[in-house]
Write a structure and sequence with these properties.
This protein is mostly helical. Helices cover about 55% and strands about 5% of the residues. The strands form 2 sheets. The chain has a 3-stranded parallel sheet. A two-stranded parallel sheet has the order 4-5. The longest helix has 29 residues. The protein is globular. The structure holds tryptophan. The site of tryptophan has 14 residues, from strand 1 and helix 8.
Length: about 350
């Protein structure tokens, strides 16, 4: 995160835009993205996918990026990447992303987007790259050395955002340094070569941090997640094994009872009820009754998603078609933007 002041500024702008979107959806193009390092879970659903679907359905022009090159910023293998990509498409579709409206694409398949990397790299300094706090945090968390790609991927993220001239980008707080870098790149390009790019704004969702089953943030690397595509039985097992405590009476107390409270929040999100109401209903039923209720809530909530997802699992050709078409549309847009960039830079030698 940059400093608190710039967070406040980003939050204020984000709130203004969120208020404006329902009345003026046509003003906005939204680019959102995930990296395909594993399966999507409930944290992804409530934290971002649900909002993307709502914006899409409100009439915002949306693009969904699967950031496959970002996988190798801090790891040495692309094992499972194809499987992860297909499975992400299935979850997006099952969650309500409509590929007719919203192209789903992988940035590795969009050469003209990647070509923006060269002029954009010329617009940033080594010092700027080295002081990006999110890059530093990711490097430390991965235990991997700082690769050239990890150092420069915020510039590549600017390519993701600017190739399609997105003006809004829904992200978590940790991504704000990248959005700031993207704004700088757009501004510097426009000043140097003429106006081509919008300066995109971050859209911050209401900061519900989705707890994993142990009370920490839900994350694949903590092993505390409920996967959207898991079976009802797998989900029941996961919840059964989740840590609670030995106090029988169920109460909502995040500080002192992280396990119990995470379960209550999970059920609350899936049912639309409040944590306190659920806790009072279960009361002396203890963690057995709580887990039974949470399991039912999650499995009921996910049943329609899982049913739709199963259709796509049986029809991989359709999933591939969605990607092929998304990539085709992304390429069309990227070629158009690259042509404008080359024109602005005086790099057109014949027509
Ligand atoms: N960096 C994002 C993450 O780790 C993923 C991402 C890549 C992204 N390109 C993007 C997000 C462009 C928003 C816009 O979650």
């Amino acid at each position: 995160m940059a400093n608190q002041g710039s967070f406040e500024v980003a939050l204020k702008r984000s709130n203004e835009i969120r208020a404006d979107i329902p009345g003026n959806p046509g003003k906005y193009r939204m680019l959102s993205g995930d990296r395909p390092t594993g399966r999507l879970h409930l944290g992804h659903y409530f934290g971002s996918i649900m909002n993307r679907v709502a914006y899409q359905n409100a009439g915002v022009d949306c693009m969904v990026l699967i950031a496959d090159y970002q996988v190798i910023t801090d790891r040495d293998t692309t094992d499972n990447i194809q499987d992860n990509v297909y499975n992400m498409v299935m979850d997006y579709l099952a969650a309500g992303i409509d590929p007719q409206k919203t192209p789903i694409f992988t940035h590795s398949a969009v050469p003209a987007e990647n070509q923006l990397m060269l002029p954009f790299l010329s617009l940033v300094s080594e010092a700027e790259l080295l002081r990006n706090p999110t890059v530093k945090a990711e490097q430390e968390a991965s235990g991997h050395e700082l690769t050239g790609l990890l150092l420069t991927y915020p510039v590549h993220q600017a390519c993701d955002i600017l190739f399609c001239k997105a003006n809004i980008v829904p992200v978590g707080k940790d991504q704000l340094p990248h959005i700031e870098q993207t704004r700088l790149i757009a501004r510097r390009f426009n000043n140097r070569y003429g106006n081509v790019f919008p300066e995109p704004e971050a859209i911050l969702s209401d900061s519900i941090e989705i707890p994993g089953l142990d009370g920490r943030k839900m994350s694949k690397s903590y092993g505390n997640s409920i996967m959207l595509g898991a079976t009802a039985e797998e989900t029941a097992k996961r919840i059964k094994k989740s840590p609670t405590d030995c106090e029988r009476n169920i109460t909502f107390d995040k500080e002192n009872r992280p396990g119990v409270s995470a379960l209550l929040t999970t059920a609350a999100l899936c049912t639309g009820r409040s944590e306190v109401e659920i806790a009072e209903e279960i009361g002396m039923g203890g963690s057995g009754a709580l887990k039974k209720y949470v399991t039912e809530s999650v499995n009921d909530f996910l049943a329609p998603h899982r049913e739709r997802r199963a259709q796509y699992e049986r029809d991989l050709d359709y999933v591939k078609d969605v990607l092929r078409e998304g990539n085709r549309r992304a390429n069309e847009i990227a070629q158009q933007t690259l042509a404008e960039v080359q024109e602005a830079m005086g790099m057109i030698y014949y027509k």
